[in-house]
Write a structure and sequence with these properties.
30% of the residues lie in helices and 25% in strands. By secondary structure, the chain is α/β, with parallel strands linked by helices. Bound molecules: NADP nicotinamide-adenine-dinucleotide phosphate. NADP nicotinamide-adenine-dinucleotide phosphate (NAP) binds at residues 40-42, 122-123, 126, 147, 149-153, 171-172, 175, 214-215, 236-237, 239, 242-243, 279-282, 327-328, 330, 332.
């Protein structure tokens, strides 16, 4: 098999394709011949050496794949053989062959392409947890979605619009026209405008009921202030720490120092009628059965045309460095995939 390794912490060029013997599925696992692997911002943080969850480098990253089952471990029903699937992988997804515990594997609905399938697990499960499970977004509420053009942002917009909510998105200006066509009601170029001021103007001073913020640092302070009474701030990443293409502990320290260490104390939350919650899909491996329920609902929503994965661009395995450059250059509107 071929795998893409993070050979050391550094710029995108540290990603290298290497050959290895085909893996054999253990008991309770299936082997998937991969057709597409999802690229996530966490992989970039991992490559930069600032992602604490990543196993020690050198490592094969990758949280999700789609493909066809071609070998079964002991105890797995034979009906799985040959099935088209999508799966969550606990690293190792940047590979053309990967073994996965069966409870992390979903059957692909008829008609779903391999590329759409690989774009679903991380982006849509995260968006579902943020908006439905913990954010409890309701009809006519206003949600502010940061990085609205990213994979999670587009998934979150589709789910929010399905619930009848209004969406304010932040994104680089070049993405605004396309994001409008994808359902974002108001767009803010947070790199030239102050998003707190603009979102307050858009909501006539009221603020918003839900914020999805994986930028972190100072952004969380502004977001907390921007919450309307009963508003909820969902924090789920720290992309502000990824300022360059090589490892910078200084950027990490600046992002961490800018966090609202003192704003969210229990009394302040109580008296302001505000909530703050965190989401990390990569820390829910003990709750896979719950995630499966979310996945089953999302696959039904795919058959209804609500869930519509948007592929920004695909890259061959050998082009993995280009894929990371593309995201870090803020070029993507939607999901970036690697194809073996
Ligand atoms: N906790 C979880 O379970 C979880 C799961 C999935 C994702 N996340 C987090 O959610 C965020 C979005 O993930 P994603 O996969 O949707 O992202 P993505 O598709 O890789 O989107 C990347 C976009 O993020 C924006 N961005 C913001 N800060 C950036 C920076 N420092 N460098 C480059 N681009 C930056 C850029 O768009 P603009 O220039 O338009 O803003 C860029 O195009 C990431 O922080 C990720 O770590 C967390």
């Amino acid at each position: 098999m071929r795998q893409i390794w993070i050979t050391k912490a550094g710029p995108p060029e540290v990603l290298q394709v290497k050959e290895a013997p085909d893996p054999a599925p253990k008991a309770g696992e299936v082997r998937i011949r991969v057709e597409a692997s999802g690229v996530n911002f966490a992989d970039i943080m991992g490559r930069l050496g600032i992602y604490p969850d990543l196993p020690p480098i050198p490592v094969v990253p990758g949280y999700e794949v789609s493909g066809r089952v071609d070998a079964l471990g002991a105890g797995v029903e034979t009906s799985w053989n040959g099935r088209d699937v999508l799966a969550m992988t606990r690293f190792g997804g940047y590979a053309d062959s990967v073994c996965v515990p069966i409870n992390q594997v979903f059957v692909r609905p008829t008609g779903m392409s391999a590329q759409e399938a690989a774009a679903i697990p991380v982006n849509y499960f995260t968006a579902w947890q943020l908006i439905v499970v913990m954010g409890a977004l309701k009809r006519d509420e206003v949600v502010l979605i940061h990085s609205a053009g990213g994979g999670v942002g587009i998934a979150a917009t589709q789910i929010a619009k399905h619930l009848g909510a209004h969406v304010i998105g932040t994104a680089s200006a070049s993405k605004h026209a396309e994001l409008r066509t994808l359902g974002v009601d108001h767009l803010i170029d947070y790199r030239t405008e102050d998003f707190e001021t603009r979102a307050r103007e858009i909501t006539n001073g009221r603020g918003v009921e839900l914020i999805l913020d994986a930028v972190g640092g100072e952004s969380w302070k502004k977001g907390y202030r921007l919450l309307a009474p009963t508003g909820r701030l969902g924090v789920f990443g720290l992309s502000a720490a990824a300022t360059g293409k090589s490892r910078s502990m200084l950027s990490m320290l600046v992002a961490v120092a800018g966090m609202p260490w003192f704003q969210f104390n229990p009394l302040a939350l109580m008296n302001a009628n505000k909530g703050v919650f965190g989401v990390n899909l990569g820390h829910l491996w003990g709750e896979v059965d719950r995630i499966r329920e979310w996945g089953d609902q999302l696959l039904v929503l795919w058959t209804q045309g609500v869930v519509k994965p948007k592929i920004a661009k695909t890259f061959r395995f050998e082009e993995a460095p280009k894929a990371h450059h593309f995201i870090q250059d803020r070029g993507n509107i939607g999901k970036v995939l690697l194809l073996p």
